[in-house]
Amino acid sequence: MSKRMDRISRREQIAEEALKLAARGISAITMDNVSKACGIVPSALYRHYKNKNEIIHGLKEIIRKKLIENAQLAASEESSPLAALKNLARRHAELICDHPGIPRFLFSEASLDKDSLRRKGLQSIINEYRAAAAVIAEKGQQIGEIRTDISAVDVVFMLLGTVVPPSFLFHITSGEFDPREQVERNLRLFEDAVRSGTED
């Protein structure tokens, strides 16, 4: 069992290094570059990932893990569902700032290609992320903290609207635009819009 855990940890370490390389563009993720980043010989890398496509899949799983962990942590750290949603948006902005390879990967041409399996995989991750946020929103509606005249799905889209545009600006300016202050301002508007009792 320990050997299996060691192998999983090694695969995740490799995927983390690939995520760092992704900040330079998807083309920077090569078997040679990844092995150098990990400080291992290419033959050792091939024991964990057979080719670049497998590394890209591992990279996708690392992004999924980070997003879902953020949703779980945001919910566990706050007693208020509305505060948890705001926490999630802040965590999302921090994640993008800490890992600029994420938006570069998500917005890459290969990921957006209509027939790309990569695109379908990313859609699945985003849907899972949205569903986790919707559970938090629904809880807020059940306890009367969040408006019930709008769907939990729409609440989540509004939440994502507080963080995705600033994150995109962070991406296209190569990190010159810091999204976090704008996200904070956006969250004040978000809370005004979705808090129960503010719709009149």
SSE inventory with pairings:
Elements: H1 2-22, H2 31-38, H3 42-46, H4 52-77, H5 81-98, H6 101-106, H7 109-112, H8 117-142, H9 152-172, H10 179-194
Helix pairs in contact: 1-2, 1-4, 4-5, 4-8, 5-8, 5-9, 5-10, 8-9, 9-10
Kindly summarize this structure in a few lines.
76% of the residues lie in helices and 0% in strands. The chain has helices at residues 2-22, 31-38, 42-46, 52-77, 81-98, 101-106, 109-112, 117-142, 152-172, 179-194.
Describe the structure.
By secondary structure, the chain is an all-alpha fold. It has a domain at 57-194: Tetracycline Repressor, domain 2. It has 10 helices and no strands. α5 (81-98) packs antiparallel against α8. The radius of gyration is 19 Å and the shape is elongated. The termini are far apart.
What descriptors fit this protein?
single chain; 10 helices; mainly alpha; 200 residues; Tetracycline Repressor, domain 2; 0% strand; disordered N terminus
Order of helices and strands: HHHHHHHHHH
CATH homologous superfamily designation of the domain at 57-194: Tetracycline Repressor, domain 2
Helix content: over 70%
How much beta, percentage-wise?
A: under 5%
Arithmetic mean pLDDT: 90
Structural class: mainly alpha
CATH class of the domain at 57-194: Mainly Alpha
User: What name is given to the CATH topology of the domain at 57-194?
Assistant: Tetracycline Repressor, domain 2
